[in-house]
Amino acid sequence: MAAPKTTGVGPLVGAVVQGTNSTHFMVFNSKTAELLSHHQVELTQVFPKEGWVEQDPKLILQSVYECIERTCEKLEELHVDLSNIKAVGVSNQRETTVVWDRLTGEPLYNAVVWLDLRTQSTVELLSKKIPGNNNFVKSKTGLPLSTYFSAVKLRWLLDNVSQVQKAVREGRALFGTIDSWLIWSMTGGAHGGIHCTDVTNASRTMLFNIHSLQWDKELSSEIYGCLGDQSCVFSEHGLLTTVAYKLGKDQPVCYALEGSVAIAGAVIRWLRDNLGIIKTSEESEKLAKEVGTSYGCYFIPAFSGLYAPYWEPTARGIICGLTQFTNKSHIAFAALEAICFQTREILDAMNRDCGIPLNHLQVDGGMTTNKVLMQLQADILHIPVIRASMPETTALGAAMAAGAAHGVDVWSLKPEDLSTVMMERFEPQIKATESEIRYSTWKKAVMKSMGWVTTQPPESRHGFVFVIVFNGP
């Protein structure tokens, strides 16, 4: 019997989406933006001590390979010729830090995840040395001093891990965020792997000058990157100034104001894995829909402190407003509301920085399939929320950027060539006064979450000389 013919679907582009909780690989048709196949693998985190969050870099890499392999198997079942995949883009958890051996390809320590708090004493010492009104780190990087970013994680690894110290002395250590680790490994690893990153990931290390688009001489020991002379706007209301994208060596860089939230959708996973009040993430929507209210219960998921707009590392998670009537459905509702209230805080900061109130919010991601959450978000913001019919726009964006890259050129980014994306609109259904009352109560609960952690033991007696070893021109 003759083998089935492969389907001619034109140029395809893949996208790796490597997140904190899972890895996803998707393949899109570059002409229609149609998602042809995908596979997802859930990941676990390691919590060696209170506030420490780690992941095994080899398991992360293995999850990427597994997702690619399974996705390709599904494509072959559809009789799609795999040679049509012309490029692969990577989207990743940006600040998570890895140091590995360039000769063996072995990680020298677990990946220190962006949520990790072990470097709080380092941040506090730096804050004392750098005047708040003359913060040269923020003026160069667009970032506040925080445990969130890669530089202080790297400092901890250099000070506390003997394998890292030895590898640095012997010139074997490579540092990178997750994108660098994946790309180096997937392009040959110890046998010629490419050690690189892009400006969007570099801008999250707290070592990169977002004005010159270079590794900063004062913050790191070597320069690596491309040149530019653009300027950007700094937030006065707790947001980050970051590089949004730069599509090509000779293309201009575009900046963004960003509001980073430590725990949003992950709070639902916490209800599942830590409290056990739901068995699947989808069940949170069912429980919340049953009660339709938190009944005065408020949930502040400050498990790793509060990020934008507060940047308050002493905060910790609290559930307050409990009565004997409160049950798991009310807590599930409060958890969904927490996501929405945190978004409201970011939106308010955006409005104050921009001076132009946003009249709607476009959303994407897996959580947007939760219709209760979408309606809550519209109610709490009191503006329409618009959801794309294809929620995985992070993957689509990575695929588009990869397909449009010079030398690939299979995906046109011209507006007239882009496929129309179907949208669903959620309108506010409560009065603005009710929205404001609930939001003000949330803000009161946020204040109660602060100051829970007052002291941190110093993890290092060393100074703050950043030593970065880069491989490549």
Automatic annotation (TrEMBL):
All copies of the Carbohydrate kinase FGGY C-terminal domain together span 232-405
Tell me the InterPro entries matching this sequence: ATPase_NBD (IPR043129), Carb_kinase_FGGY (IPR000577), Carb_kinase_FGGY_CS (IPR018483), FGGY_C (IPR018485), FGGY_N (IPR018484), GK1-3_metazoan-type (IPR042018)
Which Gene3D superfamilies did the record assign? 3.30.420.40
Q: Its Enzyme Commission number?
A: 2.7.1.30
Pathway(s) served: Polyol metabolism; glycerol degradation via glycerol kinase pathway; sn-glycerol 3-phosphate from glycerol: step 1/1
Q: Which PROSITE patterns match?
A: FGGY_KINASES_1 (PS00933), FGGY_KINASES_2 (PS00445)
Q: Mind telling me which GO cellular component terms the entry cites?
A: mitochondrial outer membrane; mitochondrion; sperm mitochondrial sheath
* Molecular function in Gene Ontology: ATP binding; glycerol kinase activity
Give the family from UniProt: Belongs to the FGGY kinase family.
Name the chain's protein.
Answer: glycerol kinase
Q: Give the originating organism.
A: Sus scrofa (Pig)
The root-end lineage is: Eukaryota, Metazoa, Chordata, Craniata, Vertebrata
